[in-house]
Design a protein that fits this description.
The chain is built from two helices and 16 strands. By secondary structure, it is mainly beta. It has a 16-stranded mixed beta sheet that branches.
């Protein structure tokens, strides 16, 4: 578990570049203290590290190939949260060398949300006609919502709790001589560890 955390932490600088590279429309987030119990029922502690959980639907070539919605066992994931100036950056990531999740940037009363796809090989491209493959993508989402338990204070050391939902646009994977189209839908119940200030 600790090794997974170290790997995820080491990916932070690498992954952040994708978040900043993709332009995505801001949306307003909502506040609802009543979701606190629902969120906290989906949070687990392992060796002092908070693990959040999500439900996912994965589509390959427009066919549903993986679905955990409604199941009792959600997928656990890490969060990494930092603050720089007046923006809180949160990465939610399930997996180690290959994985998925989300990027969330919180501003005063709005946010941006994109889907994160990551591999240890250059297999992804944003468009079918693309010719350059990359290790990771920050995929725009035509549908996204965010409900937070409390309004962020934008201070180092605070934790953020909420429920995030997204449906990504299509993206492509090229591996073993095959090209496949993917789309992800997820609902994440998350609580960050105390936010750290970016150096």
């Amino acid at each position: 578990m600790i090794n997974q955390f170290i790997i995820i932490t080491s990916l932070f600088v690498f992954l952040t570049s994708y978040s900043q590279a993709q332009q995505n429309a801001n949306i307003k987030y909502e506040l609802d203290h009543n979701i606190k119990e629902t969120v906290e029922q989906s949070i687990f502690l392992a060796n002092g590290i908070s693990l959040s959980s999500m439900e996912i639907k994965m589509f390959e070539n427009d066919s549903l190939i993986f679905d955990t919605y409604g199941d009792d066992k959600k997928i656990e994931f890490f969060t990494i949260a930092t603050i720089k100036n007046d923006t809180i950056h949160i990465i939610g990531f399930a997996g180690m060398f290959v994985g998925f999740g989300f990027y969330l940037d919180l501003f005063k009363d709005s946010c941006t949300i994109t889907h994160l796809a990551k591999s240890d090989a250059e297999i992804y491209k944003m468009n079918k006609t693309g010719t350059t493959l990359t290790f990771g993508l920050s995929v725009p989402c035509p549908y996204k919502t965010l409900i937070l338990v409390e309004k962020p204070a934008f201070k180092e050391g605070e934790t953020i709790e909420g429920i995030l939902e997204l449906i990504s646009q299509d993206f492509w994977e090229v591996a073993n001589g095959q090209e496949k189209k993917y789309r992800m839908q997820l609902k994440a119940y998350f609580r960050t560890d105390p936010i750290k200030r970016e150096k």
